[in-house]
Amino acid sequence: MRRARCATERSARHRHTATSPTGGCTFAENPARAAPEACIIWRAELDPETMPVIAEASDDRDPERLDPAMLAPWLTIARDAMAVEHAVLSDGWQRIRLDVTHGSLAAGHPVHLHYLLNGTVSAEARLWPLRRLLHFHRHRVFDPALYPHNRSIAYALTVLRVHDATVAGASHRDIARALFGNNVVACDWNSSSDFLRSRVRRFVANARRMNSGAFKTLLTKDYPAEALR
């Protein structure tokens, strides 16, 4: 039932707004919306897996057509001042990002997509969303095998927890207890190595950096393994 309700909400979510030059997204999502129901559309320059496409008008005679109406339960679209449609297909957990440079998905009519690939480095990054889109179009599901494990997610979630804790007034020791447990803090907090305190200080410093704008690197930066420890 929850998925059905989310699908109903998303089916009508077409935003008409100018892209903000300072934020990381094409529009500001309602902060009260639960994360699986939120539809965040990162700007293409911050999301290397954004696939630019041309949506040429088509009809039922075209075997290569894509019908936006069939995608409506998973589709959210924001249109900027230049009439570019920024679209995301998402079930709340996985996503496929498209920028429609010409034509329209919001119109709801069948389209023939032309995928804009060029170069070597950028083309390779966009092969993932292309594979995901083709699989989703055939099966109407997001294939987990096409979404490699991203170790940065665990790090980003921890940094977000640390940020919330510091805003709430938690001390570094409180944060250590929440992250590593009371037993670890009791044994290591006052040890001569200062290792545990240093870990917490790094998390707090990274939380401040993220809050100051470094969150824009979340989709492009591969955080080193030591940052996750």
Automatic annotation (TrEMBL):
Residues 1-29 are annotated as: Disordered. Residues 125-219 form the T6SS Transcription factor RovC-like DNA binding domain. It comes from the Bacteria. Pfam families: RovC_DNA-bd (PF10074). Residues 1-11 have a biased composition (Basic and acidic residues). Keywords: Plasmid. InterPro entries: RovC-like_DNA-bd. This is DUF2285 domain-containing protein. It comes from Sphingomonas paeninsulae.
